[in-house]
Amino acid sequence: MNEMVYWLAIQEKFWLFYPRMLEKALKEVDSIEKVWTASEGALLKWGMTRQNVERFVKYRRNVSLERFERMLEEISQKQIKIIPYTSPEYPKILKSKKWLPKLQPPRVLFHKGTILKELDEGKSVAIIGKRKCSELASEKAYEFGKELAEKGFIVVSGLAVGVDTQAHRGAIETGGKTVAALPWMLPIYPSQNSELAEKIIKQGCLLSEVYNKPKENIKWRIWERNKITTGLSTHVIVIETGTSGGTVNTAINAIRQGIKTYILKLKEWSADTLRGFEKLEEKGAIPIKDVDDFLKQAEKPKVA
Question: What DSSP string runs through 43-60?
Fold first, then answer.
């Protein structure tokens, strides 16, 4: 059986398999199939908790691998690449991050597009912000996406409406490279950005930890993709935020992971955005006023 079938089966319950556990297991056995069929004792030895061993054994007993064989055939037909955590193609930048206990790198990445290894060249920037953004934020996201792409940066964002959309568009319309981190690969979310996604495939790539849209925990899945957006980036720029929500939480996690994080601090912002920026600045975010300011700050060594 194709090894990717086992990776797909493991990916469906990815939270049971910490990446380091998979690395340890695969150093001892020579295939993911042997990890899948391993004894409870071996799973415990490799670092899986007793509770997760019990959950996995139950899942393994009841799941049909034929379903994942059919999924693999569909994925191949759609020209989507499966990249396991232990593959040489897996982005080194994702592995190199300081991951938090409840925030772990994807065990499998689904990839469609024209770039991948370029992400490890150390010149990628995440541009994040509100979905229901202001007109100023929309303008600034486009401006940053365009100008940074022209400077050779890969622009990374999440394909959401608002700031994400404008950052991708800025990069694309100047002929630059951009990457969209998706909550799931299919169907494209949000649907109104399907055409934009096709353009991104030609000038960058789509990446996700999940192939099909899940039937539950949709909001959590949307938030979870943010770890890919920041994990693929050497810098994170927050265009607009509030005091709570996905953008501010993503920025805080990036700061905790040691990723240089910037806030576009302009006097024109709303009081809520300025309070959100104050919150991030207290955590260690760096205020900037434009692209040139970012470029100057980006050249400075990070202070531990």
Answer: HHHTT--HHHHHHHHHHH
Could you tell me the strand order of the sheet in which 154-157 lies? 81-84, 108-113, 204-208, 178-182, 154-157, 124-129, 235-240, 260-264, 286-288
Alpha helices in the chain (DSSP H): 3-12, 19-28, 32-36, 40-45, 50-62, 65-77, 92-96, 135-150, 163-173, 194-203, 218-224, 226-231, 246-256, 271-283, 291-299
| pLDDT (tens digit per residue) in 70-100 | 999 999 999 999 999 999 999 999 999 999 8
pTM for the model: 0.94
For 129, phi then psi, to 5°, come to 170, -170
- Residue 303 confidence (pLDDT): 56
Identify which of 192, 204, 196 has the alpha carbon closest to the alpha carbon of residue 156.
204
If you search the block for the tokens 């994702």, which residue do you land on? 94
C-alpha 116/C-alpha 87 separation (Å) is 13
Say yes or no to pLDDT of 150 above 90: yes
Residue that the structure tokens 């059919």 belong to: 70
Contact 102, 5 (CB under 8 A): no
Helix (H) or strand (E) holding 127: strand 124-129
Distance of CA 208 to the CA centre of its chain: 7
Q: Cis omega before residue 187 (within 30°)?
A: yes
